[in-house]
Design brief:
alpha+beta, 48% helix, 3 helices, single chain
């Protein structure tokens, strides 16, 4: 059985750490803590860390659901 992986279609779908910092209004250390704890998914391209936009949306949605319950 083959598993299909959905890959972002444009560079706009991959966010840098500073872009995530701005969107979440968090500092660099806080964003890297989220990445390190795997609360926020990311990929590494060479030495660059990128966060898929859908991963950031999923993270926000999950936190909203946790806060609502």
């Amino acid at each position: 059985m083959t598993t299909l992986l959905t890959v972002p279609s444009t560079g706009e779908d991959l966010l840098t750490v500073p872009q995530v910092m701005a969107r979440l209004q968090l500092g660099r250390s806080a964003v890297y803590d989220l990445l390190r704890s795997r609360q926020l998914a990311s990929i590494t391209l060479g030495r660059a860390r990128r966060i898929p936009a859908h991963a950031l949306n999923d993270f926000i949605r999950t936190r909203l659901e946790q806060d609502a319950s």
